[in-house]
Amino acid sequence: MKNNTLKYSFFLVFLFLLIACSTKKNTFLARNSHALSTKYNILYNGGIGLDKGLKSIQANSQDNFWKLLPIEKMQIDENFSGDEKSKNPDFEKAETKATKAIQKHSMNIGGRERNSQIDEAYLMLGKARYYDQRFIPALEAFNYILYKYPNSSNIYTAKIWREKTNMRLGNDAIALKNIKLLLKNTDLNKQTFSDANALLAEAFLNLEQKDSAISRLRVAEQFTRINEDKARYRFILGQMYQEAGKKDSANYFYDGVIDMNRKADRKYMMHAYAKKAQMFDYEYGNQDLFIEMYNKLVADRENRPYYDILFYEMGVFFDKYKEQEDALIFYNKSLARKSKDPYLVASTYRNIGNMYFKNTDYTMAAKYYDSTLVKLDPKTREFAFIQKNRKNLDNVIKYEGIAKRNDSIIKVYGLPAPDRKLYFENYIAELKKKDEAKRILEEKEKERLANIDRNTNTGNSPTAVNPNAIGKSDPGVGTFNPPAGNETASTSTFYFYNPTTVAYGKLQFKKLWGNRTVGGNWRMATIKSANNAAMNDSINNDQNVANTLKDTIVVEKYTTDFYEKQLPKTQSSIDSIGVERNFAYYQLGLIYKEKFKEYNLASAKLEQLLRNNPEEKLILPSMYNLYKIYQITNPAKAEAVKFDITTKYPNSRYAQILNNTNSEDLASPDKEYQKWYKLYQEEHFDTVLDNIDNLINQYAGDEIVSKYELLKANTLGKVNGLAAYKKALESVADDYPNSDEGKNAREILEKQIPTLEKLDFTAVDGKSWKILYLVPNNDSKTLKNIEEAIRVFLLVENFERLTTSLDKYNKTESFVVIHGIKSEAYARDVSGVLRDDKKYKISHPSIIISTDNYKVIQIKKNLEAYLAPKNP
Fold first, then answer.
1. Radius of gyration of the chain from Cα atoms?
2. Do 16 and 156 have their domain in common?
3. Candidate from 100-109, 175-184, 483-492, 716-725 with smallest mean pLDDT
4. Do both 734 and 831 map to the same domain?
5. Same-domain status, 826 and 730
6. Would you say 274 and 65 are in contact if contact means Cβ atoms under 8 Å apart?
7. 78 and 21, same domain (yes or no)
8. Share above pLDDT 90 across residues of the chain, in percent, rounded to a whole number
């Protein structure tokens, strides 16, 4: 009976378990069994994966505190496609677990879900897809909760996540509409209410409605119960108020971040201090209080990971007060921390570069700007700006070098002979000091490298060691036995058979007794003194001999004659050096004014130029540019310069511009240039060349001059050929290197001219030929007869549809050209008909040439070479 009871009991238990495992039976046992299994097994493991993935996002996504932080800390990969497979294994695990829970434990009976944990599974599924940046699948999961589980406890959370996903998909307006409807519910808990307002704030930011974003984010900050979010919201509010110029409000929220201290990630607190430092009032602020706060922060050990930003802000502090030595110290301290923030490093390099630039050390400034560009994002405007300034700096370095060198030459040349000799002697004395210091450094470096070499090769050479340590590692070896044949010196334990112990003994002896001669009473002090005296005498004698030899060797660069020989010998040479220097000063003035907006540096260079008695063509442009600079920096000086221009040069174009006279007659430089460029296009090359020099002189100092110079180069190329074209381009590239025309000329010289120079006549039978008649430009009668004869021929016998044109060759001659001939034989036939037929009777000699060779003679102007007899 007992056995039967047990049998039936097992059967009933099995039956209950079978019913509980069924997803088709809507029973109390089935619902709770599946709910428990879903929650505490599958979703628990999925939640672990989701939390782990979130932590990896928090750890790997570095906030850029130099820009407005995103409200949600999540970096979006712009290149990631929503159709791609999950790229984070933790989120993939969470998605797999959520899918498993839905597939195995969903109890959809009678159109309703009976398992209370399935909405949690769908929520986890949507979150995993959202964080993995697959937003459309995530949206499907959230929508499923809203449509299938309207009474779910997660309904508000699902709505917020759906709108977050909509926002990521660019549907900000839809997100705003739906969240506003959600906020009308009064039964939201505080955290959900905070999350909804934070989402609204982010949507408003995306729509660039910052005022609305601020009001919503303030609500989110007030109601959130998560300290990390509270600190982030406060920091973002501080950033937005700072951008709006509301310093008091910004400081209020930054102070709120600081007051949280350890309640949130310390990075928010330290960057809040940095933001407050950026808003410091350098005119009325309390410097002592600022420095005291800095020292307090540096003294706190917890702030060591943030020394890079602290040192940088202190560098900026001293930089603003023009205490450059202290600023440089702190900038270098910041760089020494090897910060992981690339923009912080770039900003530090940039600020140091600016310091060197203001101190006119342009070579060092260029180096720091190069380092800045390495750290900056190439897609930013700042990168483009610094890159442009860096390129302009090459011209500054070039012209500053010319100005400094030529000023020095002119100064020394003008000194009386005794003063010049004294100048060179002082220079040589300084040079010797520098060379000696350099020699000492080189010797120390050699000694250091030799020590390193000795230390790394101790196994290959004898080393002085303590003999007391010898033999202790192997007590079985006879202490005083001589080494056997198969032993090496380094393995012997007998003192005098081991070079290492002997070397050590010699060093110890000299250290204790000094240099002693071999003999009796060697330990007596008198013997030691005598030995030392003898040794010192020997050393002194050797030193005297070395000095004597050194004095007999004359190094040329240590003589005044070496420098005297390098000075110019004639006044014309000095004048050309002065012209080069003046042009350098003028170019520097323009570069500082136009490219860098450094008006003080620009005015200094132009003022110095005018004191140097420059050529006439530079005086007016320099004065006019000074007038434009003084209009910005010193209006009183601007009026004085204007008076000088209008009284001393009343008929000049600049005086007319300043007086606003004849404004209708004064065409704008660009309009005037377009007129002459049109003449060039119409091949009126002679007219252009006859007037171009006057135009260049008229607009001297104006930016338009480089355009006229390039137009002149192009015209010379058309008239005089490739050699003249190349020479003119070189002049434009050298004289206007920082203008677009100068850069264009340099590009043509580097890329096109070498190709054109390689062009040569070809003997290949081409498929296109021409007949040429070379006619002097002043022989209008011959030109008219040839053109009329060809016109008649083309009307009567133009079976091949030939055409004709008049092409310029050079300044004195032009070609009448017949085009469209397909073979040399036919070209000769046509030429013969035009020569022999009585209807045409062209007695002028013709030239038969292929189209390829015609291009060569027009480019190189080498018709004589083409017509010259060919050697068999």
1. 45
2. yes
3. 483-492
4. no
5. no
6. yes
7. yes
8. 23
Picking from 41-55, 604-618, 650-664, which range would have the lowest pLDDT averaged per residue? 650-664
Task: For residues 160 and 245, give the distance between their C-alpha atoms in angstroms, rounded to a whole number.
Answer: 32
Compute how many other C-beta atoms are within 10 angstroms of the C-beta atom of residue 769: 25
Alpha carbon distances (Å) from 589 to 397, 605, 617, 678 = 13, 5, 15, 32
* In a domain? residue 632: yes
Residue 483 near residue 494, CB atoms below 8 Å: yes
* pLDDT at position 197: 92
Cβ atoms 783, 816 nearer than 8 A: yes
Q: What sign does the dihedral 383-385-386-392 (CA atoms) show?
A: positive
Q: Same domain for 740 and 791?
A: no
The number of distinct structural domains making up the chain is: 4
Q: Which domain holds residue 89?
A: 12-60+68-169
Give mean pLDDT, residues 711-717: 89
DSSP 535: H
Q: Which of 723, 757, 791 is the last residue of a domain?
A: 757
pLDDT of residue 483: 45
d(CA 189, CA 212): 22
3-state secondary structure string across 304-322: HHHHHHHHHHHHHHHHHCC
pLDDT, position 500: 67
What CATH number corresponds to the domain at position 684? 1.25.40.10
774 lies in some domain: yes
DSSP state of 491: G
Query: What are the tokens at 612?
Result: 């140097």
Percent of the chain predicted with pLDDT > 70: 79
* pLDDT band, residue 333 (cuts 50/70/90): very high
Which residue in 540, 522, 520 sits closest to 531, CA to CA?
522
What is the predicted pLDDT for the residue at 30? 60
- Other Cβ atoms within 10 Å of 601 Cβ, number: 19
Both tokens assigned to 650? 């009343």
pLDDT higher than 90, residue 326: yes
**Number of other CB atoms surrounding residue 413 within 10 Å:** 15
If one compares 660 and 402, the residue with the highest pLDDT of the two is 402
DSSP per-residue codes, 85-133: PPS-HHHHHHHHHHHHHHHHH--EETTEE--TTHHHHHHHHHHHHHHTT
Q: Identify whether 409 is part of a domain.
A: no
Do 834 and 792 contact (CB within 8 A), yes or no?
no
Q: How far apart are CA 442 and CA 475, in angstroms?
A: 48
Same structural domain, 694 and 786: no
Longest C-alpha distance within the chain, in Å?
146
Global confidence as pTM: 0.64
H or E element, residue 281: none
Same domain flag for 585 and 705 = no
Whose CA is closest to 315, among 332, 299, 300?
Answer: 332
Q: What is the DSSP string of 679-736?
A: HHHTT-HHHHHHHHHHHHHHTTTSTTHHHHHHHHHHHHHHHH-HHHHHHHHHHHHHH-
Q: Dihedrals φ, ψ of 672, to 5°?
A: -65, -40
Classify residue 311 as exposed, middle or buried by CB count within 10 Å of its CB (0-12, 13-18, 19+).
buried
Mapping DSSP to helix (H, G, I), strand (E, B) and coil, where does residue 432 land?
helix
Give the SS3 label for residue 74.
coil
User: What is the domain-level CATH number for residue 155?
Assistant: 1.25.40
Quote the CA–CA distance of 45 and 52 in Å, as a whole number.
11
Higher pLDDT, 198 or 87: 198
* Same domain (yes/no): 584, 677: no
Alpha carbon distance 405, 416 (integer Å):
19
Q: Which residues contact 305 (CB under 8 A, 6 or more apart)?
A: 266
3-state secondary structure of 42: helix
According to the per-residue pLDDT averaged within each range, which of 67-81, 108-122, 498-512 is highest? 67-81
Query: Given pLDDT bands bounded at 50, 70 and 90, which one contains residue 109?
Result: low
The average confidence (pLDDT) of the chain is 81
